Amino acid sequence: MVSDLVEIRSFMTSDADECVQMRAEAFRRLFFQHIAPELINTAINAYKPDKFIETAAHNPFFVATRNQEPVGFIGSQFLGKNTIEILFLYVKLDHLKKGIGSKLIRFWEDWLQKNNPEIDRIIVKTIIPDYNQRFYEKHGFEKSGTSFCRYQAGQIEALCLMKKLK
Ligand SMILES: CC(C)(COP(=O)(O)OP(=O)(O)OC[C@H]1O[C@@H](n2cnc3c(N)ncnc32)[C@H](O)[C@@H]1OP(=O)(O)O)[C@@H](O)C(=O)NCCC(=O)NCCS
Fold first, then answer.
1. Atom in ligand 1 nearest the alpha carbon of residue 124
2. Residues lining ligand 1, CB < 6 A?
3. In angstroms, what is the span from residue 124 Cα to ligand 1's centroid?
4. Residue 93: inside a domain, yes or no?
């Protein structure tokens, strides 16, 4: 199984460009059917390499590699004492549906349980629920409402999903 050949490690500063690229590719090649064209660039430009580096410095952020090459990543941010939000979960397009996204989310949850046992709630906001809601539901998330992902140039409606850990 491909995911058995994948290793997961902490984010390094040198991963930032690759992560930006993976996210941008998902928006350009997967999400274009679900988001208004004028908002695609807004969403892509909301996260430049510096933002990834800054987020990873203070929050759990991991990269999946195959033969040392990044093939996916998960980044999150603490929200208060008991809640964490998944900000990014992306798998390289030529590695989709091979178990890598599942491996990343499981690794991240295990890491959280060991290192931040006080966290009892995970949230994720998705602006493309038609595309990825089922993936999150398979991992125990449930719909919890709607919200907006706010970017400097505008906002996009998002579906909120939540998972209780205790
Ligand atoms: C969502 C994402 C991370 C899933 O990663 P992945 O490695 O392809 O997923 P997995 O191979 O681990 O799939 C796990 C299960 O979810 C299902 N699944 C994965 N992606 C799915 C999708 N887009 N729609 C419906 N089901 C999906 C798989 O079929 C699999 O089901 P199974 O266990 O019954 O076989 C990946 O599709 C991705 O990077 N998408 C683009 C970015 C994205 O949507 N990120 C989330 C932003 S909030």
1. 48
2. 26, 30, 89-91, 96-102, 124, 126, 131-132, 134-135, 138
3. 14
4. yes
Total number of domains in the chain:
1
In a domain, 160, yes or no: no
pTM for the model stands at 0.94
- The whole-number pLDDT of residue 67 equals 94
Chain centre to alpha carbon of residue 56 = 12
Mean pLDDT calculated for residue range 61-79: 97
Per-residue pLDDT for 118 more than 80? yes
| Number of the ligand 1 atom closest to the C-alpha atom of 72 | 39
Ligand 1 atom closest to Cα of residue 127: 48
H helix or E strand, kind and range, residue 100: helix 100-115
List b or e across 93-103, with b for residues whose CB sees 16 or more CB atoms inside 10 angstroms.
eebeebebbeb
CB 19 within 8 A of CB 71: no
pLDDT digits (tens, 9 = 90+) for 134-155: 999 999 999 999 998 887 767 8
